[in-house]
User: What shape does this take?
Amino acid sequence: MPAPESLFWVAAVTIGIWIGIFLYCLSLERRLSKLEEETP
Amino acid sequence: MNLLIESFTILRKELTSELRSRVAVSSVGLFALTTLVAVAYQIGPYRIHEQDRPHLHAALLWIIVFFAASSGLPRVFVKEEDAHTAKSLRLAARPGAVFAGKFLFNLVLLLGLEAFLVPLFAVFMGFSVANLPALVLVLVAGALGLASSATMVAAIISRATGSATLFVVLSVPLVLPMLVFLIQGTRTAATVPELSALLPSLRAVVSLTGVTLVSSAFLFPVVWHD
Amino acid sequence: MTKTKKASLALLFLWFCVVIWAAFFYAPKAAGFKGESSRIVFFHVPQAWVAVLAFCVNLVASLRYLRHRNLLDDARAAAAARLGLLFAVLATVSGSLFAKVMWGSFWNWDPREVSIAILLLIYAAYFALRQAVSDPERRGSLAAAYAILAFVTMPFLVFVVPRIYWSLHPDTIISAQGSVKVQMHPRMFQVLVGSLLGFTGLFWWLYSLEVRLSRLRLRREEGGE
Assistant: This one.
C-alpha cells in the first residue's frame, strides 16, 4: 500500500475521473443512437 | 466616389437629427461629467502619490471615456430599429455607405467627448502631460478604434432584444486589448517627452483598428440585411 | 455503433489511461518547479489547446453558416463554442491551481491569464447574444458575425500582448536540467504530445455528440411543423 501522499493516489483519482467522464459520454452515445433510430 | 458622397449624406443626416434631439450628445456628456465629478471628488489632484499618478490617471481616463461612449454610441443603430426607419434606410443607401456614415458620426461624437473631457480631467485630477502632441495622437487613435468596434457592435445588438445591456457585454472583450494599449500610450505620453516611445502602443492600436474596420466592412452587410 | 467507432472509443479510453499513468510515473519532473507541480502541464496545456481549437472550429462553422445559411452549421458553431467555454474554464482552473503552488497566488495578471480571461468573456458574450435573439436565422448570422469579429482581434492578445509584457508563464520550453532554453526532456515531450492527441480526440467525440443532438433537434422541429 503506497503512502497516502504518494503520486499513486493522484494518478488513481485522475483515472477515476476519466472513467467517469468516459462512461457518461458512452451513455450519451447510446441514447443518441437510439433517438436517431426513432427519428425518421 | 459615389460611395463617399453617400456616406457623407448619411453623416449629415445623423448630425442634423442629433442637433435636433441631442440625445446622444447629452447622454454621453452627462455620463462623462458625472463620472468625472464622482472620481475627482474622491481622488482629486493630491490623493495619489506622485509616482502612481500616470498609471492611475491613464486607466481612469479611458474607463470614463469607454463607459461614457457606451451610453451614446449604440444609439446610431438602435434608434433606427426603435423608430422603424431601418427599413427605409436599407432601401435608400448601400450598406457600405450606411456603415461609413454611422462610423463617422460616432467618430465625431467620440472626438467631441474627448475634447470636452480631457481638459476637465486635467484640471480636476492634476493630470500633467509631458508630450501634448503625443497625447493628442493617442486620443485620436483611440477615438478611431473605439468608434470602429462600437459601430459594428451597435449594428449587431440593434437586431437583438435588450440591446442596452448587451452593448457593454459584447464590446468589452473586443475593446479590452485596445484599451490596454491606449492606457499604455496615455501613460507614455504623460511621462516621456519623446514621441518615439509612443510608437509600440500606437502601432498596436492602429493595426487593431484596421483589422476591425476591414472585417466590419465584410460583416456589416450580413448583419444589416438579415 | 459501427465497429470502427467502437474500436476508436476503446482506443481513446486506453490512450487516456496510459497518458495519465505516464504523466505521473513515466515523465520526470521538471527542475525549477516546486515538488511535482510541473506535471500539471500534461493536462493544462492540452485543455488550453482544445479551448483554442474549439474557437477555430467555431470560426469555420460561422463562416460556413454565412455562406450556406444552413442552420446545422450554426448549431456546429454553438456546439464548438460551448465546448470551448468548458475547456477554457478547465484550463483557467488548472492554471490557477498551478499558479497558487508556484507563484503563491491564484491570479497574477500574467498576460496569458489575461488572454484566457478575455477568451472566456468572448464566449460568455457570444452566448449572451445568442440568448437575446429569438429568430433562429437571425441568431445564426448575428452570432457568426460576432464570432468572426472576436476571432480577428484575438490574435493580438495571444501573440502580441505576451511579447510586449513581461510574463511569469513558463516558456514553451521547459528543461529537466534547470538551464534555460534547453529542449524539454524527451519523455515529457512524448507525454505532452500524447495528451494533446488524447484531448483532441475527446474534443472531437464530444463535438460530434453535440452536433448529432442538434441535428436531431432540428429534424424534430421540422417534423413538428
Observations:
- The mean pLDDT of chain A is 87.
- The interface with chain C takes residues 7-8, 10-11, 14-15, 18, 21-22, 25-26, 28-29, 32-33, 35-36, 39-40 of chain A (CB under 8 Å).
